[in-house]
Amino acid sequence: MYFIFLAVCFLASVIGAICGIGGGVIIKPVLDALGVMDVAAISFLSGCAVLAMTTYSVVKGRLAGDSKVEMKTAIPIAAGAVLGGVLGKWMFSFLSSFSSDKNRIGAIQAACLIVITVGTLVYTLYKNRIKTYHVRTALVSGMIGIFLGLLSSFLGIGGGPINLVVLFFFFSMTTKTAAEYSLYIIFFSQIASLLTSLITRTVPDFQPVILILMAAGGILGGICGRSINRKIKEKTVDRLFIGLMAVIICINLYNFFRFIA
Hints:
82% of the residues lie in helices and 0% in strands. By secondary structure, it is mainly α. Helix 3 packs across helix 8 and helix 4 crosses helix 8. The chain starts with a helix and ends with a helix.
């Protein structure tokens, strides 16, 4: 069973690093579908794996000096993502306190992911026809960061596809640039989410070896994915992203009906 956690996190993080979606949007629904742990534990461990991968990608990008991230834009978004990460973790705990049935929370998360991925897929297919904007004010950037950080933390997915769509629309970024900014948002929101869990003592029960394997898979996947991302074209990233969204929609539909059954 341990191999499943390592393999899922590695493959998801490779794709996540290429597309800038963090991997969690794959890890969370796939592990939910396999039914290997309860919803709360999967959400927490998925967030940790995504944090490990994004930490590597962000630090490596800064040290290599090839980062496309402008601090003037990134700092307000990151600050908002931190606040959003705390709010998202609080929201998850709040909903969990109302029901002892963890499947109900899983169904809510799956339904949210379906809406997000369908919307993301539609936007991606028609983005060339949609007018985009160039947000420059720190306040608006911060509010966008809060929204993205909240979703990232509540769903345990890192933010993933919704990050790219929002960055495309509000900041007129290219696919690769948006992917790098997305990793920054995921990095800060997941740090906030993890610290909130530790401070409030709401860390679910799990075997430490699983966390180690998932984090290792996330880091190794981030290394491979980052290397591949630098070698392929924007159009290839777009095609991979579209295909991935279609697969994720199918997995989340399965999870939703499994949880409510």
